[in-house]
């Protein structure tokens, strides 16, 4: 929804691209390939034909990029804000999807992207910052289709990081009946941080869309970096270079 999930002045071609990407990211994180999409659009009564064309152009660009067929949907006029809903199907590359609940204590936690771009880009968009940084928020990096095969092969549990690394780590751990220990110095960050506060800010900002997985300890997984472990004790433990870091009161975005 305009004003909630994207800014009112975000170009509509980028809104279309992000809509595809945030949904494809969920599918890929389950060890599956995106296949078909249904699109519902509630279009503002004062919306222009050129704006609608821009939205469809961006949407079509990334549907094609990720090999997704648009098979139907709905279009209505609304007196409220622009509201978009995309339903995406996927084809599992294993017997079934890789769920959040398959991890076990002692297994390692991995991610396959850099954390913090979403928050830094949103801040730049609001403050008129560098265009390349704003673009990282508007058209986020997500895992490739090839990563779905890697996840299906190696991951015991998986989800995409959308609301913030720390809050999503706690969700995966809790679903697996575990806690988590994150080594903050191991987290690949979008921007080099000079303080613990800056590291934590990037780890709680959200809108990053890399894949977070658990897998057997000691395993080397192509494209993924170890950032911690699942623990038998519940809760989240943070350390930096072996020193315990206080867990922040806000771990990420809560719906």
User: What structural category arises from helix and sheet content?
Assistant: alpha+beta
Helix content: 25-40%
Gap from first CA to last CA: 14 Å
Element-by-element helix/strand order: HEHEEEHHHEHEHEEEE
Question: What is the typical, i.e. mean, pLDDT?
Answer: 96
**Main β-sheet: number of strands, strand sense, barrel status?**
7 strands, mixed
What is the subunit organization of this protein?
single chain
Classify the beta-strand content into a percent band. 25-35%
Low-confidence stretches: none
Task: Describe the strand arrangement of the main beta sheet, using strand numbers.
Answer: 5-7-4-8-6-9-10
- How many helix segments? 7
**3D shape:** globular
Q: What is the CA-atom radius of gyration, in angstroms?
A: 19 Å
Annotation, overall tally of beta strands: 10
Q: What does it look like?
A:
- It is built from seven helices and ten strands.
- With 255 residues, it is of the alpha+beta class.
- The chain has a seven-stranded mixed beta sheet with strand order 5-7-4-8-6-9-10, with helices on both faces. Strands 2-1-3 form a three-stranded mixed beta sheet.
- The chain starts with 11 loop residues before the first helix and ends in a 10-residue tail after the last strand.
Structure summarized in a few sentences:
This protein is an alpha+beta fold and about 260 residues long.
